[in-house]
Please model this.
Amino acid sequence: MPEEGKYLYCVIKEKSPRKFNILGQDEKKVYTINEGDLAIVASDTEKEEFSFIKEYLTCHQRVIEEVMQEGYDVLPVRFGTVAKSEEDIREKILKAKRKELLETFPIAEGRVELGLRAIWKNMPGIFQEIVKQNLEIQEAKRIAQKNPFQMRIAGVGELVQKALDAKRENEAHKILSPLKKLAVKFKERELLRSPEPLKDSMILSSAFLVPKKNEKEFDKKVEELIREYDQRIKFIYIGPIPPFNFVELHLKV
Model:
């Protein structure tokens, strides 16, 4: 009977073989494949490819998170990576890429990823602020009300959108400034935008790589922001999680 393939989750530093009390893809047991002081966390699989569906993506991240929660610094492997055998993993990854892996570990060691999203609660109120603070928009609105041509109306919309983007950037800067000081790396993620102005409410979606010693202070800063902007902004705070946005091993096996 041919050896099953191995689905790969992450690389950790571990000398001894481990079996985790975790179920991986297709509810298979999760364990380590070791070589020296490095190990890959894996589970058996009969599949050669994994589709980008929520069930598989969620399982991939959950396994890595649970390994991290057991005290390991983790280097996440790209979703859907499958090796043919344990021998391939040892020879083509843990031995062949040992130097590269060891050089990558400092990114993750003693650090966690924390995520923050900020969303305006009251978009009609935000638009009222924009009009009140912008004389050019006030004048354009006055002219548009007298001139029914679409070009004029579109011109007002462009001015409002420009002002909204400037307000978004300004408020994001105020929120991020105290948090970035506590992180060693920072990444702006793509905003979930809406073509409808009244639904285009996301201010920021950011990931921070934070030393564990700064985590409590980071939590405190986020709590302060939540209190300060209580009536204005909804915050979604995520973490601690593995450094998914800062490390993703692309392993060819």
